[in-house]
Amino acid sequence: QQQVKQSPQSLIVQKGGISIINCAYENTAFDYFPWYQQFPGKGPALLIAIRPDVSEKKEGRFTISFNKSAKQFSLHIMDSQPGDSATYFCAVSASGGSYIPTFGRGTSLIVHP
Amino acid sequence: ETGVTQSPTHLIKTRGQQVTLRCSSQSGHNTVSWYQQALGQGPQFIFQYYREEENGRGNFPPRFSGLQFPNYSSELNVNALELDDSALYLCASSFNRGQDEQYFGPGTRLTVT
Fold first, then answer.
1. pLDDT for A56-76, tens place per residue?
2. Continuous H helices in B1-113
3. What does pLDDT average to in each consecutive run of 10 residues of chain B (113 residues)?
4. Burial of A93 by CB count in 10 Å (0-12 exposed, 13-18 middle, 19+ buried)?
5. Which residues lie closer than 8 Å to B105 by C-beta, 6 or more apart?
6. Which residues of A touch B50 (CB under 8 A)?
7. What distance in Å separates residue B15's CA from the closest CA in chain A?
8. How far apart are CA B64 and CA B81, in angstroms?
9. How far is A35 from B110, CA to CA, in rounded Å?
């Protein structure tokens, strides 16, 4: 049983466009929602994270939107650049579970120049 | 400050053999988590070590075992290798059981033939 469902599996956007990746979860005990970026041959790196007390968090071109009632959160990449081409993973974790993350299956993003 | 390092980078083993993977945590970090990432999937949590003791375990059989040393470096041991064990094995370090950001190493690519 998947604890977090991520979509789409792959995404192609043009340079300057907006990339949107969505995740949905079931367990309301989750209270930490990070997004990771992974380049080929590298481990995942934390990109941005949100806690359920806010509905949106923005860091540069990256924004997380969080809908607690719908149990969904999404990553928006504004002005997408070719250097953003990578695999993106959402994750869910709980303070009661030592913040050990459960990852989504990933979204492969390609940004065409 | 050095990041998380893992060795070896790549490894090829035969079914039934045993393997040991190594991880050096980031300076100042006392927690190490291990993940298995199959091709095209998100990382799956194997176990976590905090101050040399196991602090949580995912849904992996007992032939996956680990150690954390006094300098907080860690080993992952896998006995009786199976073809399905072929994956990227990631180590992540953090301070105080992941309440802060986890920093991932580049991983060890294990191929079982």
1. 999 999 999 999 999 999 999
2. none
3. 88 98 92 94 94 92 96 96 97 79 92 97
4. buried
5. A43, B3, B4, B5, B6, B23, B90, B91, B92, B93
6. 98
7. 24
8. 10
9. 26
